[in-house]
Amino acid sequence: MSTLHAAAEPATSEPGGVSRGVELYAQNCTACHGVGGGGDGPASLAFKPRPYNFRHLQPDVSEIDRVLRVGVPGTAMLAFPTLSEPDRQALAAYVRSLYGQAAEQGSLKAAAPVNKP
User: Which Pfam family is one of this chain's hits (predicted)?
Assistant: First the structure.
């Protein structure tokens, strides 16, 4: 079951959007999706299916928002009902910025959104 897919809309370029997304990603996502978004976090080996690799396919903002609100049935991806809409948008901006990037080692960095065809 594929729940994330390539998108036509660009990543948001709101000031602070990606930087807030970095903070949220570090707090909520790295254990499963890994620092660089490759689905290779320390908890990832325990999951079938494995966590999504954001570097290979860029999910659209509305799909990220939906997944954060309701989770993905049949997977370890739970909903994050306490995230506000602005926080979901910031997290989506950061997740979309990971697309096409090489694996990062070390700390999370605020990256400029990458738009690939």
Answer: Cytochrom_C
Rounded Cα distance between 39 and 24, Å, is: 16
Task: State how far the Cα of 73 lies from the Cα of 95, in Å rounded to an integer.
Answer: 20
Taking every pair of Cα atoms in the chain, the longest distance, rounded to a whole number of angstroms, is 36
Q: What angle do CA 44, 111, 82 make, to 5 degrees?
A: 55
From CA 47, how far away is CA 81, in angstroms rounded?
22
Helix, strand or coil, per DSSP, at residue 59: strand
Taking the CB of residue 69, how many other CB atoms lie within 10 A of it?
13
List the CATH code of the domain at 17-97: 1.10.760.10
Mapped onto helix, strand or coil, the DSSP state of residue 6 is strand
- Angle ∠(74,8,88) on CA atoms, nearest 5: 55
Q: What is the pLDDT of residues 73-111, one digit of tens each?
A: 999 999 999 999 999 999 999 999 999 987 544 445 544
